[in-house]
Amino acid sequence: MSSNLASRHVRTQTSSIVATTVCFLVVALILTGLMAHVVVKMTRSANEIDDARATRAARAAISAFVARLSGTTTDNAIWDDAYSAASSPTAADWAFENWGKTSEDYALYDGAVVIGPDRSSIVSAYAKGKPFEPSAFFGEGFFRQTNAAADPERAPLVNFIKTENGIALLASQAIQPFETAGELPKLSTLSFYKEFTSEVLDTLSDEHELEGLHLETKPRPEFLNTPITDMKGAVIGYLVWPSKAPGSTVFHQVTPYVAAAVAILALFLIGVLMVGASEARRLRQLAQAALFEAGHDSLSGLLNRHGLLSLLEELESSGASPLRLYLVDLDGFKAVNDAWGHAVGDDLIRLVSNALLVCHPEVVAAARLGGDEFALVHVGDATCDDMEKTILAQFAEPFKIGGRTIEVGASIGAAARDGDIEPLELLRRADMALYRAKANGRGQAIEYDPELDQERQRVAELEGQLKQAISSGAIEAVFQPLVSATTGAVTGLEALARWRTSTGNISPEIFIPLAERCGLIDALGVHMLRTSIEHATNWPDLALSVNVSPIQLCNPEFAAEVISVLQELDFNPKRLTLEITEGVLMTNPDQARRSIDQLKRVGIKFALDDFGCGYASIGALRQFGFDRMKIDRSLVSALDEGANGADVLRATISLATALQIPVTAEGIENSRQAAILREAGCDQLQGYLMGRPMSAHDISGRLQEDSAA
User: pTM of the prediction?
Assistant: First the structure.
């Protein structure tokens, strides 16, 4: 019996051992299976998380690419200067200088196209600084986009489009003023494009951690893919990049250790959890970085326009006051870029950004709105005058960059939050004040006043009246005698523009600059030339002098227009003298020289007006071959103000005599001035002493009196 008991005990122990073993094996298998399932699940999840991150990064890369080109297009299309230039005869030259030439080496776009208001004519089209044909390069989709973008109410229209070279991002927007008054005419359209080149893909790859990013025409199942669609929604390509598969990499590294021991498996699980947590932190950091980039300028680190408006909204909701917004525009920044290059310009932007950010303890934020324009948000009790002085003081000393000494100034526009005005309105008011500060000259600071809006409205109304006055002939020509210094006889007449309205006369110092700004100077110039010549046909023995704006002379069609008027009215070109100021010789000497040479070939003479009040050099006098020099009235009036006024005047006339250029003195008001000028060698006199500007009828009467005497 004892044997049976022992046998049962052994079987019992054996069964127990087997059961325990089986149970252990089952538990081990279950645990192993669970751990294997967990490992596989985590491996797959890690791969999927990274793939999802990479997919989001790819979309973010496309969005950033689109936003960058869209912002660049808006900055250039909604621009008063661009709007004025687009409707002027110099639109093509202006577009080339500002966009076409820049496309040669500009990082933000590869080409720029300006389509005329008729939505079919190409005003300017340059790719990498060279002319190209958009319809051939982009196909029919190009004009479909530009036609849709011609509506001024639309935001930039941005689409991917197939090109001869592959795929490009095309952004289009109507060229329009920053602020509109009334209904706009049909507008020209500005388009920028940026090709999806390998360099662009490499940049996106580096910025968004998408290694191996490249472009394919078809999706590749073994890679991650993001489609690129055109404006019709059709897929025209795919962004393709390999998955990093971090989970699989980790799994292969730890597989031998998982098979060796459960402890190592546990450590592996802990490691995977740690890796997952680290990856989650990294993804959160990437999200935070993307959020930061959305509201900040990449070059300076300051807020961008979006970030500034968001901050103003937050301050408005928090009730922070008193609050002022200051817009700061650098004076002379373009000259820095032109002289030293964009790298130095970027360094200067960073230095200015750092200086403005800490210029005053009550400045709560600084922003860069684009180019060389900054914004400061001020919350505190400091007065506007104190803040403006503090800001301008940042530019009192030159900046040092790479051994270079660079001087720039600043213009400031300020606006205070008044009641519950929206951030955009506050920004608009500050921009209005900045516009006035820049118009007043460098280093100026202006605070917003409602009068600025009223003045802009008055200017807009005056522009309309000026256009109507030119077309209706309301702007008249008056004539001031040009008298021989030796005989006292009238030898010529200078035509001057006068605008008389029912409410009074408008000074040429007002309406001529206005015509230059709003693109009416060419029409005004042709009107004055035609009117003056029509009257001058009644005085066949007298020469006629007509003033020409520098903008007119820089118009490639100017010379042909003048010759056409002369031929139409059968006027002898040798009787006509065009008076120009030296400013045109400095702003666009090449085009000025072409126009002058073309007109001189038909017999027209040229006089350099206002000599002595600017920077005209002897070299300019020789190079442009002036037929006459007109001494500025400031040198004549100096005869009555200082002891050395006569010496300066004699020296100026001697210079002209040495160059064999006859001299006219203007602004003569008394006999003493006339005598000194006559003695100094001046051959022609002009001024109130000889005769005020008179109507054509009064001039004819005077000439009859002179001939009778």
Answer: 0.51
